[in-house]
Amino acid sequence: MGTLALAAKITHVPSMYLSELEGENKGCRQAAIDGHYEIDRRCRELGVDTIVVFDTHWLVNGGYHINCAPHFEGIYTSNELPHFIKNMPYDYDGNPELGELIAEVANEMGVHTRAHSDTSLGPEYGTLVPMRYMNADKHYKVVCISSLLMVHTLEDSAKFGLAVRKAIEEKYDGTVAVFASGSLSHRFADNGSGSEFFHKIWDPFLGSVDEHVVRLWEEGKWSEFCGMLPMYAEKCYGEGMMHDTAMLMGLVGWNKYHGKVDVVTPMFASSGTGQINAIFPVEPIEYSEVADAINQQFNKALA
Asked: Would you place residue 301 in the very low, low, confident or very high pLDDT band (cuts 50, 70, 90)?
């Protein structure tokens, strides 16, 4: 019924907002902002009506959660970095129908999920920063999904991503883009060294692994990447333990995926972390084949 038109791994670094403001950092993240503009352009060409964001700044301590309120409006200040993002207005429409359908399918697939359509809960900046550059005119409806998951497995997150795909294609009448909003490596600079590392990765090892990962994506070596994802998330301080990336990989086909990533904004460093904007071309999948591949990898890992 519905169409998954575009999938991407995107940055949401708060210095993008800082980059707009007058001062010494004005323009510092223009390349990342331009990458968001380009992803928006492609979404509009594809007729996208709703953007689903796997948000690594929405922390939950149990279950999978979907914020699908009918409307989001307010003024946002980051509780983590209030000197970077403060008093930022937002105003977007939600999509309760799609959020409820995703929860329905995820629960059918054994991933315990709740959709929240009657809620005062607002989006976090993993959603708000990209929407600032892609959705200022409220062209898209927005659905937020928690991806800072404290007691969850990457296996379940991969299955959840597959459920999102299934809900879109089998139950939703519309066209959707899905973004994994989170970093590559995510080791923040130590307190007091933020200025020194504003444009630097925290450690050369982390940068080397990030570069290797991006090469795998560009070459379409998905069995290798999915195999290393749990260790990558652990050893390279993955943002939200990279649950957003596991969801994204489940969405596009896990290690059965054949696409080669289109890097829109080349990898860059921000406050010690590794960042990128990259589009994962959407290909047809067999749901049962992808589910079996996810089960096989993680059952093998447990053995």
From this structure: low
Cα-Cα-Cα-Cα dihedral sign, residues 223, 220, 146, 85: positive
Domain membership of residue 159 (yes or no) is: yes
Total-model pTM: 0.97
Does 102 reside within a domain?
Answer: yes
**205 is in which domain, residue-wise?**
3-298
Q: Decide if 134 contacts 140 (C-beta within 8 A).
A: yes
| Residue 272 DSSP code | B
3-state secondary structure 172-220: CCCEEEEEEECCCCCCCCCCCCCCCCCCCECCHHHHHHHHHHHHHHHHC
- 35-54: b or e for each residue (b if 16 or more CB lie within 10 Å)? bbebbbebbeeeebbbbbbb
Q: Is position 272 within any domain?
A: yes
% of the chain exceeding 70 in pLDDT: 99
Contact 181, 12 (CB under 8 A): yes
Give one word for 275, left, alpha or beta, with left for phi > 0 and alpha for psi -120 to 50.
beta
Condensed to tens digits (0 to 9), the pLDDT of residues 31-45 reads 999 999 999 999 999
What residues are paired with 119 via a beta bridge? Answer: none
> What's the structural domain count of the chain?
1
CATH number at residue 189: 3.40.830.10
Identify whether 253 is part of a domain. Answer: yes
Calculate the alpha carbon distances from 201 to 24, 267, 289 in Å: 20, 11, 37
Per-residue pLDDT, 23? 86
